[in-house]
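In the laboratory, one determines a bound structure by crystallizing the protein with its ligand and collecting diffraction data. In a computational setting the workflow is compressed into a single prediction: the sequence and the ligand go in, and a structural description comes out. We illustrate the idea with magnesium ion.
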Amino acid sequence: MAYTYRITVLAGDGIGPEIMAVAVDVLQAIAPRFNLTFEFTPALMGGCAIDAVGVPLPEETLETCKNSDAVLLAAIGGTKWDTLPRHLRPETGLLALRSGLGLFANLRPARILPQLIGASSLKPEVIDGVDLMVVRELTGGIYFGQPKGVFASETGEKRGVNTMAYSESEIDRIGRVAFETARKRNKKLCSVDKANVLEVSQLWRDRLTALSADYPDVELSHLYVDNAAMQLVRWPKQFDTIVTGNLFGDILSDAAAMLTGSIGMLPSASLGATGPGVFEPVHGSAPDIAGQNKANPLAMVLSGAMMLRYGLNQPAAADAIETAVLSILDQGYRTADLAAPDTTILGCQEMGEALLKLLCQ
Ligand code: IPM
Ligand code: MG
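The predicted complex, in C-alpha cell form:
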C-alpha cells in the first residue's frame, strides 16, 4: 500500500539546518523501498523565526504543523536570543508548540549501543545492556501551572512564582501512555515523584497506583526523584520504563541520555491524543559548532525513525533507518563527539553521505 505523508520541517537554529538536511535526505532515500512519499514543508520556529517575523512560533507555523501528519524539529535557541523578554525567547516557542499541538507525552529512549560503550563516562559494567525509556509529561506541571510570574509585594520586594499542579485527568492520560509503553517493553514501570514533600506528587502517586489495576501485567514501582537520580547513575539497568512529570522528566532524561555517552545519539517523540506528533533530538542547537560541519546528525536521523514508528505507524521503515545507523557505527564511522581510537571521524554532511550510500546499496 502506498502512503503519502505531509511532514512539517522545523530546522530551527544553530546546528539545526545541518542535521535536518541529513535526516530529510535519509527519509527520501528509504521512501521508495517502503512505498512512501514524503512532502516536506519547511516552516520557521525559534530564533530564526524571531529574526524573520519577530516571534518564536508564528501562527502560520503552528497552522502548518496542525495540517501535517508529523513534525520534524531539529533544535532551537542560541545566546543571541537569550536576553530577549521571556515571551520572545525561542524556548517559549517550543513550549507553545507542545501546548498548541496538545503533546502531553514525551518519549525519550536511552539505549546503550555496544559500539559506543566506551563513550560513556560510566564504567562499562554499569551501563552494558541499559535500555530504558523515560515517559515525561510535557504540557502540564510547573512549566505551565498558574499562577506564574514575578510579582512585587507590598514592600516592593519582587517574588518569583511558578506552580506545580496536576489534575487527575492529566495524570491519568500520561499514566496510561506509560503503562502501554511499558507493556510493549519489559513490563516494568517506575513512577518518579516527590510524594514525601509535595501534595501534587502524592496525587500523582495515588493515581498511578489506581491505574495499575488496569495493567496487572505491568509491575509498578515508585521512587522519589532524588533517589531516582542517584539510581540512574548507580545501577541504571534496574529501569525499563520511567514515568514522571514535566520538570523531573526534563532533568532525569538528560541524566539518562548521558549514560549512553553522547546526547548526540538520542531521539525523542512528543505525542498527543490525536493529531501530529513532534519528533526531535534530545540535544540542543549547539551554537558553538554551528555551521562547521561537525555536528552529529544521528539523533536527528533516529528522530526520523521514531516519527516512522510512533507517528506514522511504519515500523519496517523505522527499522531500516535504525539498522543503517548501527551499521555505520559498526563500520567505525563517528562524528567528533564520539571520537575514539580506531574510528574514522566524519563531518555532519559526510556522515549523511555514508548513510545514503548504505541505504541505497
Ligand atoms: C527539553 C528542553 C526544553 C525543556 C527547553 C529548551 C524549553 O530542555 O526539551 O528537555 O525544558 O523542556
Ligand atoms: Mg531538557
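The longest helix spans residues 168-184. Keep in mind that any predicted model is a hypothesis to be tested, not a measurement.
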